[in-house]
Amino acid sequence: DVKVTQSSRYLVKRTGEKVFLECVQDMDHENMFWYRQDPGLGLRLIYFSYDVKMKEKGDIPEGYSVSREKKERFSLILESASTNQTSMYLCASRGANSPLHFGNGTRLTVT
Amino acid sequence: QQQVKQSPQSLIVQKGGISIINCAYENTAFDYFPWYQQFPGKGPALLIAIRPDVSEKKEGRFTISFNKSAKQFSLHIMDSQPGDSATYFCAASVHQGAQKLVFGQGTRLTINP
């Protein structure tokens, strides 16, 4: 069974802080993704990576960056957190022609 | 821009009834249409998917109906059960292996016992 693990279930940060969200997958998948989930807006893609050290912008990359130094780990970075980044963040991974497998999410609150 | 539009935003159905969730898309290049199911506190999980070369796909009580000319597809849940209460997302991509999966806004389904 594919396991995508997000390091924190809940996170509370202050405006202006640098925030790291960590994600690890155990299926040797090439592709990893970061989405944010907001009521009424569905899931929106922030960034994705199709290989180590490779990254591509999704639909809403502003205010975010990512890091993929190892195949199993994909980090989302908020350089300077703002209140409009309060959201549920979902990490996902996928192998070639396999469905997306999601983690259970990190609910981030920025105050 | 919202390339996949999903409705309704919320839906309440009595146990044993039929739940229907609709999605419409704009990009005619889309050729892979999955549905994801999300329970509270969990990430979404693939429920069922269809490609446009068929008009219907059924897995147990779950059926996807696909109308290529109207650029619409829908999820039908027959004999809805309280355990089906969840948030459902439709999605689309250019092909199954594509990097970008575009999601609809989600439908919160509640099945009353």
**Which range does the strand content of chain A fall in?**
over 45%
- On the 0 to 100 scale, the average pLDDT of chain A is 94
Number of helices of chain B: 0
Oligomer: heterodimer
Largest interface: A-B, 25 and 22 residues
Structural class of chain B: mainly beta
- C-alpha-based Rg of chain B, rounded: 13 Å
Overall 3D shape of chain B: globular
Largest sheet of chain A: 7 strands, mixed
Number of strands of chain A: 11
Given as residue ranges, the uncertain stretches of chain B (5+ residues, pLDDT < 50) are none
Any overview of this molecule?
- The complex is a heterodimer of chains A (111) and B (113).
- Chain A has 111 residues and is mainly β.
- Helices cover 0% and strands 54% of the residues of chain A.
- Chain A is built from no helices and eleven strands.
- In chain A, strands 2, 4, 5, 6, 9, 10 and 11 form a seven-stranded mixed beta sheet that branches. Chain A has a four-stranded antiparallel beta sheet with strand order 1-3-8-7, with no helix packed on it.
- Chain A is globular.
- Chain B has 113 residues and is mostly beta strands.
- In chain B, a hairpin with a 4-residue loop joins strand 7 (62-67) and strand 8.
- The A-B interface holds A 4, 31, 35, 39-45, 48, 50, 56, 58, 90, 92, 96-97, 99-105 and B 4, 6, 9, 34, 36, 41-46, 49, 89, 96-97, 99-101, 103-106.
